[in-house]
Amino acid sequence: DERGVDYIYLNNSTARMLELLSEIAPTDKIKTIDGDTRREVKPSQIEEKIQMCFIDGEHTDEAVLSDFKFCLEVLDENGAILFHDSAINYNAIANCVQYLKDNGIEFRANSLPDAVFVVEIGDFPLHKSPPIMERLLNNHVGFIFQMQYNDYYRQFINKKPFQLYRRLMTKLKGTNISD
């Protein structure tokens, strides 16, 4: 994924997700799509428009953008697309938001704690829901979580070998490595 590491998620399955969700709400209306929207699953396979899509698949920019475009095609004119692990997928999410702007699609977007980014298309009322409103008013929680999540990468890149590499490149180039 975009973190540069292949993660293995033990016991991670659609069945387990539905089981966990059923502990807090009925799941009888939830329909899942398991498959790659770039190659395996086509929008024409979805018979009725969807009101809400939750993207939590492969954590690559390409896959997230593909899932987003798939969701956009099958979404009702008033619907929402939610992205899980937004601290990992932030570049892809930025591309999705830009896609909406470039195509003149009306939307609202916000970040929810801890790692969910929401795009509401049209006049979808998710942001008016009291539990969501509370999270929006306290969205600093999600922001802090995501910044702390990034500390892993900051700690990694600041290890001695990388510091030495940056110093060497600065001397060789005569400029900062980020230039």
Q: Which spans have pLDDT < 50 for at least 5 consecutive residues?
A: none
Radius of gyration: 19 Å
Largest sheet: 4 strands, mixed
In the CATH classification, which architecture of the domain at 14-138 applies? Answer: 3-Layer(aba) Sandwich
- Strands, total number: 4
The SSE order reads HEHEHEEHHHH
CATH class of the domain at 14-138: Alpha Beta
Q: What is the fourth-level CATH superfamily of the domain at 14-138?
A: Vaccinia Virus protein VP39
The CA-CA distance between the termini, in Å, is: 26 Å
What would the CATH topology of the domain at 14-138 be?
Rossmann fold
What is the typical, i.e. mean, pLDDT?
Answer: 84
Output the structural class: alpha+beta
How are strands sequenced across the largest beta sheet?
Answer: 1-2-4-3
The tally of helices reads: 7
Shape: globular
Relative helix content: 40-55%
Beta fraction: 15-25%
Characterise this structure:
This protein is α+β, with helices and mostly antiparallel strands and 179 residues long. It is 42% helix and 16% strand. The protein has a domain of 125 residues: Vaccinia Virus protein VP39 (Rossmann fold). It has 7 helices and 4 strands. It is globular and about 60 Å long. The model has no long low-confidence stretch (mean pLDDT 84).
Short description:
This protein is α+β, with helices and mostly antiparallel strands and 179 residues long. It has 7 helices and 4 strands; from the N terminus they run H-E-H-E-H-E-E-H-H-H-H.
Spell out the blueprint of helices and strands.
Elements: H1 14-22, E1 50-55, H2 61-74, E2 75-84, H3 90-102, E3 107-112, E4 116-121, H4 130-137, H5 140-149, H6 151-157, H7 160-173
Parallel strand pairs: 1-2
Antiparallel strand pairs: 2-4, 3-4
